[in-house]
Every structure is written in structure tokens, then in C-alpha cells.
Fold this sequence. Notes:
Helices cover 27% and strands 23% of the residues. It contains ten helices and 22 strands. Strands 6, 8, 9, 11, 12 and 14 form a six-stranded mixed β-sheet that branches. A five-stranded antiparallel β-sheet has the order 1-7-15-10-13, covered by helices on one side. A five-stranded mixed β-sheet has the order 20-19-18-21-22, with helices on both faces. The relative contact order is 0.13.
Amino acid sequence: MRGTTSGTRASSARRRKPAPIVSSPPAWPPARPGRSSSMSPLILPRSEGYYESVLSNTTVVAFIQGVVPMLNRRRIWLTAVSLGLGCLALLVSAQAFVTAGEKKADAGSASRFKAKPIELVPKGGKVTYAGELTGEDAKFQNHYFKVFTVQLEKGKVYRIDHKNAGDDPKFDPLLFLEDVGGAQLEMNDDADPVKSLDSQVIYKAAKTGTYRIIATSLIAQQTSKFTLELAPASPAESASAEFKFRITNYADASPVERKKVIQKVTKQLADKAGKISIADAQLAIQLAMQTDDDGIATARETYGAISKILAGAENMQVAGASKFLESELNKLEKYLGKGFPITGKTVDGKEFDLKSLKGKVVLIDFWATWCGPCIAELPNMEIAYKKYHGKGFDIIAISLDRPGDDEKLSKFIENRKMPWPCINIEDSRPLATKYAVNSIPFPVLVDRSGNVVSLRARGPQLDRLLERLLAEKK
């Protein structure tokens, strides 16, 4: 392991070649956990009538602009319908790649990146490390990495840069920021993909303490000299970080504080007078989608306000985001506050009717054994089931596994020891068609009256919703 705390800055204008389109999801980098994991992955419908996930659960999901042809192993062309928003690839960045079945990190979980850390000691708020990724470094899924620790102060905004300092212009830096326990806070692949492949994270520290920085590469087995720089953010970067901080912490805010966040964010967007960046659009959409659980009235108002502002953006790709929000709002209008009938025969041959669970809070989970994000969410669901089942919480799974894979599904359920029932493959298909399910996981949470209260009850949000709903009087 080589490296010093001084070195020269090195960056060059480099363009990435378009990545080849594949029929199965790449295994790298790991999915980003956190509040944004409530977003559903993009699922492409096959002509046979089943589904295959190609993007992970992440911060926010991106649809590819235009119609994207994809050829699977049976030579069947698949297409993904555009939202007219190619720039919403911004919503996933490198976070879009995840391997099927990969475990999702959550608060308190151990980091995937296990290596002896290098301590960074800033002077005057700045520190530069000049080092090299080599074949002798620790690796995760064939990606070499170095781990650093640094002390950050609550409320301060930092800029962390991971730059190529070697001779290979194709070296693609990838940067992760974790808390001391290994929970991922931020990640970035290309800070400015037009100019270079270097990565950058702007972060406002939520608390004073030790943080972990992981310097690695997007491409497997890449080695190169690099520099890692930490410095105070510029005023513009700090303003952007503050904007993001309000949105990413929205779920933890009180009802009164939430209203203030919505007002501040919409005002900030409107004040830009059409000069709205892709990053601004990303965060605005993230905020809108977090209001789903505040009720249809709040969601309708927020979606409408943000959609109107984005529609006036000078950047046509950003302007197209308004259509995405309109589509999402239509989905909410269709389901929120209404019943969601589910009937069918379970995998073990029993008849099921959601009406039999009236009086309970129920999670209706559209999933499949081949869906990586679905499997990644199972531990969270199991924890919630164990914690709240005795208080009136239940789960019904609806399998979108391939026709004929009944035995595979049964074995998975048996081996996993899933305590909740699952509708069999044959009866699940009509339900997916009825509710126009074209992406999974698709979690639908219904209250004690059997009415839909959320379409994004995953990750930490599931626990928050259950705690509130089960505390309400019957």
C-alpha cells in the first residue's frame, strides 16, 4: 500500500464510452441504501408476459430516454418506455447497478469494504492523500479499494474529490462515504462526465464524529495512482448541500417542519427562474415522492408545484421531468385512499382473500425470487414482521416468478422460512395485470380499513409507517 499526504493534482478531460447493454444487471457498484430506496427499479416487460429487473432500488430510479432496445438470451427485444427524461439517469448514476440477491446495507450494518483504514488528519479543514490502487489492495467483487477515516464536524459542508492521477485515461474513480458503522451515506461515479471520470461528494455532516471514505473504481480490476482531497465546500456547493440536506432528512421532520421544507424547496426552485440543474431536478423529484405518505392532498399540491416549475426549465431534459411527476401523481390518485382487493390461491394451496385481514395493517408485496432488489428488501420485511406482527401487521406476497417455476418458488420460501403467505404464480399474474404492475418490488401498504396508504413502504419508511398506523385506534 503506497501513499503520502501530499501530491500533485491530476485530471484530464476524458469521455466514457457508452456501456454495453446487457440482459442481466451488472454486479457493481453496490446499491445505495437510505431514504431513497423507496423507489422502484425499472422493470422491462417481456413479450411472454413476465418481468425481469434491470436496475436496482436506489435513490431515485431513472428511465432511459427514448425507446431502448435490449436483446435477451432468447433474442426477444425489450423496450423501456421513456419518461422523456434522459437526464433522470442522474437519479441513479452509478447506483443503478446491483447484483441479484446482493444484501442491502442499512443503518448499523457492516460495510462491504473491509480493510485497515488510513486516517486522514485535516489541517485548516483540508487534506490531500496521494496514493495508488494496486493488485495488493483489498477488493470487493474484483474492485480494488482503499478505506480512509476522517473526523467531520456537525453542520459543516465538505467536498471530497477522488481523482485519477495516473497515466491511464480510462481509470474511472468511484467514491463512497459511510458513517462509522459502515452505513452508506453518499456515493458518486462521475462528478462531471463531460469533462472527466473523476468522482466527487458534497456532504453536510449530520453529526460530529468519524466517517469512512472508500476510494475505488467503477471498472473491475482497475489500478492507478489517484489523489483523494477533502476540503470545505464553496458557498455555492454549501447552498446545494443545504438544499439536499433538507430533502434527504424530510422523513425525519415533524409535520410542521415538512411544510416548511416544501415551501423552501419550491421557492428555491422558482427563484432559479428556469435555470434548474439536473441535480436540482433530482432532489425536487425526491422530495415530491416523499410526500406520498403525507396524504393525497399534500402530495397533489407538492407534485403540482414542482411539476409546474420544472416544466419551465430552460434545459429541455429537466423540463421533461414534469411529465414523470404527472405520471406518478396519476398513480397516487388511482390508488391512495382506496381499496386494493387481493384474492387467489397461495403456494401451499390455501384460498386467500385480503378481506380476511381487515382490521390489520397489511403489506402487499409484488416480488420475485429473481429480483435482486426484492430479495434485498426481505431482511427489512422480516424485521418489521417480527416487530409488528403481534400488534396487527401482516404481509401477503404476490409472486411474479416465471410460469413453471412453482417448485423453485416453493423451495425458496421453504429455505427462507418466510412466515407470511404467498400467492402462487398462476394467480399472481392476473393481479399484476389488474394493477398494471410493471416494476418490482412494488410494495402496497393498506391500513386497518383496507385502504392504500403508501406505494413506497420499503426500508426505514416501512417501520415509520407501521409505527404510526398501528398506534392509531381501530
